[in-house]
Amino acid sequence: xxxxxxxxxxxxxxxxxxxxxxxxxxxxxxxxxxxxxxxxxxxxxxxxxxxxxxxxxxxxxxxxxxxxx
Length: 69
What we know:
By secondary structure, the protein is mainly α. It has helices spanning 2-35, 39-46. The longest helix is centred in the first third of the chain and has 34 residues, at 2-35.
């Protein structure tokens, strides 16, 4: 009878601990996402509209200078 009682207390403590841990995780995710400004606000704060337009060369193809032998 005492083994059953000890096992019941251990299982109850384990369930209480896991439910507490699982309840805490989404709150931290919500708070971190809510504290971050939107992309439009970040661009406004950084002054992206004042930057000049740049010509960027297409560097998607890279050719080797010499073939390895």
